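Project standup — Tuesday

K.O.: blocked on the structure for the chain from last sprint. Re-posting the sequence here as requested.
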Amino acid sequence: MPKHPSEPGAPSEPDDAEVIHPRWQAWVADNLARGAEPEALVEALVEDGAPRPRARATVDEQRIHALRRRVAALEQIVRLRAEHRTLQAEGHTAIARRPLPTAEEFIARYVVPGVPVVLTDLVTRWPALERWQPAALVERLGHESIEVCVGREDTTDPDAEWAPLRQELTVAALIERVLAGPSNDVYVIAKNAALRRPGLRSLLDDLVLPPALFGPRMDPARMGLWIGPAGTHTPLHHDGDDSMFCQVVGRKRFRLAPPESLALLDRSRGVYSHWDPGESAALADGPAHLIELVLEPGEALLIPAGWWHQVDALDPSISVSILALAWPNDFGWYRPGSLLRGSVEPAR
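H.V.: unblocked you, prediction finished:
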């Protein structure tokens, strides 16, 4: 509860009832910082003679000043993190490629600080490397149905507006279209929930996930299957989970930037960015430097929550994204762009 203006040590009465003395303004700011209710401060000023509209305006002004100071302080924290990240990422030019570490080292070096890493020997253990080759998939599961997003090239924002594009194809018909040539028109994405289909659940038998990193059992509700031709494109966006993106067939090019990239946040539309680089030449004109890498078959990329990433398939491609990790991994509250311009849900 704020100190009443008439108590010892409180500011003296304003000289002009229409003007709140600077000492009263400081008193309001101090009590706001201590957690006082704004309405209690308004009533205290009114009780000592300030007009209610002026009292309320004074409290509102001090709340705005406090918010600006807090934003400025948080921006300094972000700037400090960004400058440290520059050293950590070797000048924003490289992401480490390494064999799978112990769970303790993985959490300490990559998960906690939010550092992407490419694991070179996780997917190489999977039977899927052979069993998911296109011809083998058709022979094994060609008759099964799978939900696919079709018509992406005629849609302005196919990743955000994915639901109307859903169609049922057989796996054989899908693979035929995947191998027909480069296109962004046909794509199985995580939201198509392919691994939850009874007819496709046998695909889970082709994965080998160390329990120390991924928990004691697979959760297909926290896994995504991606199948598409060369040319599929996911625009620059961030997720609210740490994601292990595992490349099984073909190559994908990733362009990434850390959450501290305020220039991208300034151009956000929910979890997506209005700025979506195309060819490499466009990178020099962009608002922030992106780290670029090509994920090869048999490699897995940790994408920490909040990291901006754009994805392009360089070949016909099959991938798995895994969100079910052996530690809490849901930061759904992280939607800074939504605070600026309204929410847009990720296609994932």
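K.O.: great, moving the ticket to review. The longest strand covers residues 243-249. Residues 11-16, 342-348 have pLDDT under 50 and may be disordered.
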